[in-house]
Amino acid sequence: MTDDACIRTDRLVLRRFRDADRGPFAELNADPRVMEHFVRPLTRAESDDFVDRIEERFRKQGYSLWAVEVRGSDPFIGYVGLWDATFEAPFTPTVEVGWRLAARAWGHGYATEAAEAAVDDGLVRVGVRDIVSFTAAANLRSRAVMERIGMVRDPDGDFLHPAVPEDHPVRPHVLYRFPDLELRRREAAGEVA
Ligand SMILES: CC(C)(COP(=O)(O)OP(=O)(O)OC[C@H]1O[C@@H](n2cnc3c(N)ncnc32)[C@H](O)[C@@H]1OP(=O)(O)O)[C@@H](O)C(=O)NCCC(=O)NCCS
Question: Is residue 32 part of a domain?
Fold first, then answer.
């Protein structure tokens, strides 16, 4: 995959991370509102390390978390994309679709628009065979994105995230899946009308 690879949607560009994104990314990773459903906000060093891992996965796997830009108005609002889930759980290893946007970019449908595009790219261009999503049970905004892109909660999928300390309120997680991922792949590939 090339460094200038990108996906264009009606309002957004999903693109590779640039050095200029590191500052604004650290800001949103340090924002308690954005990080409410995580163990804690990230330091600047942790945020920069995350960018390095994101870009390493693009280079090695051809998919990762896309930096999201609002065309013509905001050069970086956060990430949306695919991320290997390798921690110990009944449904892993698999690929997660996930999102994290600066609070100023919430309420516009950007996460939903970008996630649809990232999933379709993963299914068609990359050939990913399984995509799930999961979040802290109390993260209703994230769960609403999952539902808007057509995922449904797997009632047997609830789990305690092993990377979250015991007794931490964000440990209980819910799991969402696409009801028919192969149909979605064929639709995205233009194989069904
Ligand atoms: C999770 C997160 C990305 C959701 O953001 P969001 O703005 O609620 O979701 P979307 O971008 O899909 O926007 C949907 C909202 O935009 C509104 N909207 C406005 N214009 C719209 C448009 N043109 N199209 C679609 N929706 C539109 C929708 O009505 C909806 O509003 P509502 O929340 O009042 O129902 C965001 O809250 C976030 O980054 N949280 C912190 C990080 C996090 O928790 N990530 C997930 C961890 S698993």
Answer: yes
If residue 132 lies in a helix (H) or strand (E), which one and from where to where?
strand 132-136
Domain that residue 27 falls in:
6-188
Closest by CA position to 66, among listed 58, 175, 140, 185? 58
What six digits make up the tokens of 125? 């261009």
**pTM (2 d.p.):** 0.97
CA of 83 to the centre of ligand 1 (A): 20
Note whether residue 125 is domain-resident: yes
Ligand 1 atom closest to the Cα of residue 106 is 7
Per-residue pLDDT tens digits for 23-68? 999 999 999 999 999 999 999 999 999 999 999 999 999 999 999 9
Residue 131 lies in a domain: yes
Q: Is the CB of 170 under 6 A from ligand 1?
A: no
Task: Give the residue, by CA position, lying nearest to ligand 1 atom 30.
Answer: 107
User: Does the C-beta of 93 come closer than 6 Å to ligand 1?
Assistant: no
